[in-house]
Fold this sequence. Notes:
The protein is mostly helical and 232 residues long. Helix content is 68%, strand content 2%.
Amino acid sequence: MRTALPGHPDAPAVPLARSTGGALGAGAASALVVVLLGWAVAAGWAPLLRVDGAVRDASYAGDDRSGAVEALLQAATAPGLSVTRGVVLLPVLVWLLLRRCWWTATWVVAAAGLVSPLTTALKELVGRQRPQFAEGGARYESLSFPSGHSSGIAALVTVALVLAWPLLAPAARRAWLAVGVALVLLVGLTRMWLGVHFLSDVLAGWAVGLGWALLLAVAFGVLPGGRAAVRR
């Protein structure tokens, strides 16, 4: 099977077995990362805590940052919000429903919508407090591990790339993958610049979002070549 866009070269189809195997491998690796980091945080493993502390102190933008810097950081971290996922994916859901892609639409809701409750459950399980700073810091009341913004943006980017992949030419795939990775990195870094998460919180959040979206993609058959994959 080959798919193409008007005015672009044909985009080669992705064999289902290869896409499924890659997704399962990435999902399993992501789950392992979450488990290991969660155990290390809950157990107070000293090497991890030292790295987290050093990165916290080096990356925090400080309590005396200007209003312009604060506004810029808040704008940069906003793609990780639940409301952002809703705004971005609502038109996609409408488009899928109009095409009667019921399974694909259900996957989008589950992958992008349920990642927040999953992250919250993991926060309660690990019970880590937010980073503390001598000057004050953000002083959030909510728990820290894993980062909800990081899991949210990772899930959003994964959903968008899985949906678009069969429709994109090879060059466009590489370009949009690079944009997606850059956005995920930016949101994760802003959480540390704002002083509201440790490095391990961000890494675990990325792993939660990626692994959750990919494992559900396998279950719902939405990967390229699958029964519910987007086709032109």
